[in-house]
Amino acid sequence: MTRVRIADVARAAGVSVTTVSLVLNDRNAARFPETTRTRIRDLAREMGYEPNVLARGLRTRRTHTIGLLSDRIATTPFAVGMVEAAQDVAREHGRLLFLVGTGGVREVEEDAVRALLAQQVDGMIYASMWHRPVDPPADLPPGTVFLDCYPVGDDARPAVVPDDLGGARAAIAHLVAAGHRRIGLVDIDEDPRPVASVLREQGYREVLAEAGVAPDPRWHVRSATTAAADAAAATETLLALPPADRPTAVFCYNDQVAHGAYTAARRHGLRIPQDLSVVGYDDLVLIAPELDPPLTTVALPHHAMGRWATEVLLGVRPPPDEADGVLRMPCPLVERGSVSPPPVVPGQRTGDGQ
């Protein structure tokens, strides 16, 4: 199919190529009568004219493209929300998004940065599929925005990450408000320890301290992986404690771990939430609402973070004013059916030992 050129539109409209160019690029277009501007735009649309972005980029030094580099694209449940949001914002503002998965390999990252710079992209987003510090490639251009990660050292460039501390605080406060005092933490056993694990434990301990509760060290257990079987084994360590010491609620590192906690509870003949309340993290669509009962959990704001990062890159919104350049996006609590007041032990006053 022959490409429609600007000269073809000019010929059909009976005006000069310069006039068409000025009108379609909205440069001094007001100098022409409204009827002329309308005729040119209508003809361009009817004829299927598409501007030559590369040629325009050579003139304006802007290509209306942006690049998104990510360590993972399709291997995590969080990628879709961030990428879809970035694509939506790019489209809303007339940009094309180039998406590159690097596998976290430094050589691949460096090659990808060079390739995107050769394409004269207007800016880049450097993304991670889990909250962590990163040591980015040296050639990332000024103005690069970091998504779900933040650069190490003194490189305080714009970044957005989930507020894992705030999300954990909301989860534990919800359990405390329901009357729980013996709250277990089913964590993840990884080395190095994930940033999310550190912050979620911090939130757990802060809220318990504010409630006047000194957590028993036995209440903090670690699952070998996030697999339900490993999480169930870790949770059973808690449930094997004497009834007077056993947690009445558990806060889980993520929804997969919470799934394992459900399994462990049922092995011990415990009902959720009547005998054991459970709160997860992540709000995974294939787990949290599908468990029986549906899981109360903390949502990770990946879609909101992807939108924020792209809007900052395009100048639609200002960068964060935090000293370290990092915006911590709120993680909302999603209440479902896995939390209730703690069980009352016969002969024990309500709240005793809780």
Automatic annotation (TrEMBL):
Family matches, as SMART domains: HTH_LACI
A Pfam family of this chain: LacI
Family annotation (InterPro entries): HTH_LacI, LacI/GalR-like_sensor, Lambda_DNA-bd_dom_sf, Peripla_BP_I
Keywords: DNA-binding, Repressor, Transcription, Transcription regulation
Disordered as annotated region, ranges: 333-354
Domain of life: Bacteria
Transcription regulation listed as a keyword: yes
Keyword Nucleotide-binding: no
Domain (HTH lacI-type): residue spans on this chain: 4-60
An example molecular function term from Gene Ontology annotations: DNA-binding transcription factor activity
Protein's name in the database: LacI family transcriptional regulator
Organism, as annotated: Cellulomonas marina
Organism phylogeny: Bacteria, Bacillati, Actinomycetota, Actinomycetes, Micrococcales
